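quick one if you have a minute, typing this from the bus. below you get a single protein, a line of residues and a line of whole numbers that encode the local backbone shape. could you go over both lines and see whether the tokens make sense for that sequence. anything you notice is useful, everything is just below.
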Amino acid sequence: MSRIVQAILIVAILLFGILIGYKAGKDPSGTVFGQQKKLLEALGMISALYVDKIDDEGLVDAGIEGMAESLDPHTVYLKADQVDFSDSEFQGNFEGIGIEFDIVHDTLLVVTPLAGGPSESAGILAGDRIIEIDTLSSVGISPMEVIERLRGKKGTTVSLRIYRPYTSKTLKVDVVRDKIPTYSVDAFFMLDDETGYLRLSRFVATTAKEFRSAVKKLQERGMRKIIVDVRGNPGGYLDQAVEVADELLPDGKPIVYTKSRNGGADEMRYSSTSGGIVERSAMVLLVDRGSASAAEILAGALQDNDRASVVGELTFGKGLVQRQFEFDDGSAMRLTIARYFTPSGRRIQRDYSRGSQGREEYYREIADIEEREKLFTGSGSLEVESAIEGITVFRPSAEQFDSSGGIFPDYWVVERPVDDFYGTLQSQGFFDEAALSIIDDPSSTVRDYAEGDPGAFIEDFSEDRKIEVSLRSICKTRGVPFDEAMFLKEKREIIVAVKSRIARQLFGIEAQIRVLARESDKVLHFAQELLRTDKA
């Protein structure tokens, strides 16, 4: 490290330390500054004396990452490129070509061109395979590489070579990049004459606007009851969760509040206002262990105000508030500054241990289904009768609601676990690969639906034998034994899984969700049962 660079680095760190000391209400000449001096001495020693030459920027990054890791699981340090990517995802727009994509067995597949985007204008269709991006092969490409190659400055052009399976033609398509809106409402449709379904995948800058638009369209179709699905929703912007809750709650109801160490501006209380577009409709909210942060704020607000039945699993348990502090080089730290609480005072954040090991345990714990399910088997939880086959339903006791962090559902629905054979087919991408093979098969009737109404495909498509033959062939090619007994046991679920992937590849994610909603989503079916029997 040169003397000039070292001097600049020292001054920058000192200024940052003074800033943090000021923000924390500390005297910069006191203990905090003394600890910063120790950090500078360590940096100087390593830079000057370590046996190998050290990348100073990487060393500073590692130091900040280490400090963040020693705190809670949600305080993180982001490098500049990570900040840019994250901001574009949550601000509701980015610049690119506007496709939703999947990678299936090394094949880059267009799931759907986004409505009104440049790919749609250029004639790209759902189901197209992108085989080259700017003359470079896309076979075996990673998801991040796809994003890096397709995103770019508005007005620039990307050249794609596309294979279209329905016509067996290869096309060259030039797409001019533009600003692309990102969406958080994955699907909305009517389940029956009076029940609407709406799925929120995350909370971005446009979520409340999308939510209002979707609800109004469902109301025009006759919706009187609604199921909102936030399963797998990792959260996002607090203000968007508050706005959605406001549309569902009558005037003057508490939504969420925060508590911080220093009080003042870091502590907030949010309440609903009048004029929500869906304040009176009977409602169920679907959650699972992937529902976190802003999704849990919505669930807690609806549950504590007796506005909706919460159905599914105990949620993730992320109740820490982060504020992003940016550095001059474009990197940033997301620092936990407060905690969320539901209107009744329940903490959302579950317990955690500090440090890297604590962080690993924290995320591993959420995946341990057996440990989580122990939470509802004791303390007075009651089993509930249901007409839906293949599920067991529990109503947690009052003590359980406050016991562990996260949002306990009003009805905890336990589905029969899939067997190892189904799990292998799913985890190794066999369902997606089988869907591709059906679409590519000239003898399949799937081509009759490809450019038509997805509703017709969802209602009528049935090629069980072709799907079975395709899966057998894939298993043989990949060296995976085909378990005859388990296939017969799980045949219906396996066929539906492949059909849902075909629907996604032909029509997009909403079509996939509609297939599953109709044929295999038992948690959703239980929610419909609650609404039909007025128990919600």
About this structure: Residues 484-507 form the longest helix (24 residues).
